[in-house]
């Protein structure tokens, strides 16, 4: 595992850039899954499940790291980097991203935070409203209770993602359970044997990547209109409107969805 001061997939040896084989396989997996329809989040989850590290200091992947990887043209040989991804594969990924962005624009989607703000309530029961002003950090959400006057400053993206996760957790019983195939179990056994006797790390890494692809194949096939797991489609928003009564925000910025069936979810900051 190498420090991520160098673009993922490469290392510097004797003053020259060279490809790291095990990371090359991970990059190939990322592009393959994305071009097959997987979201950034689904890909990062697959990498983390298989124990494929991003770097020594921060080994876990997230959707942002996956997105940056998919958008980086240096993988095709730009700026003196060895070619790690063929140009047609890279362009196919850019086409997928362009299609997704075009769908969002054509739908005229409102920002998620604008849809969620009317649901915000203080623990006193008062309505929480957004504060405006040029002094604000654009990535922060500034709220004040119209009742008691309490204020809250929250990370906007983390707040939205936490709300979406709580909503999806509430709907989880209706989702199709993941069922591993015989191939997944076979590869899991092979991986475990390889880890116990790691005579060939390259072979073990290849098995891990095969296992990730096999696990992904067991998941429901994503539709052309599918969105990342931390965003909501228009159909999701309609269910959200029916299911959610309000969203409580405490003084220490804990967020809790209160549903019309009176069930409260766990809390996300």
UniProtKB/TrEMBL annotation:
<dbReference type="InterPro" id="IPR011109">
    <property type="entry name" value="DNA_bind_recombinase_dom"/>
</dbReference>
<dbReference type="InterPro" id="IPR038109">
    <property type="entry name" value="DNA_bind_recomb_sf"/>
</dbReference>
<dbReference type="InterPro" id="IPR050639">
    <property type="entry name" value="SSR_resolvase"/>
</dbReference>
<dbReference type="Pfam" id="PF07508">
    <property type="entry name" value="Recombinase"/>
</dbReference>
<protein>
    <submittedName>
        <fullName>Recombinase family protein</fullName>
    </submittedName>
</protein>
<feature type="domain" description="Recombinase">
    <location>
        <begin position="7"/>
        <end position="104"/>
    </location>
</feature>
<dbReference type="GO" id="GO:0000150">
    <property type="term" value="F:DNA strand exchange activity"/>
</dbReference>
<dbReference type="GO" id="GO:0003677">
    <property type="term" value="F:DNA binding"/>
</dbReference>
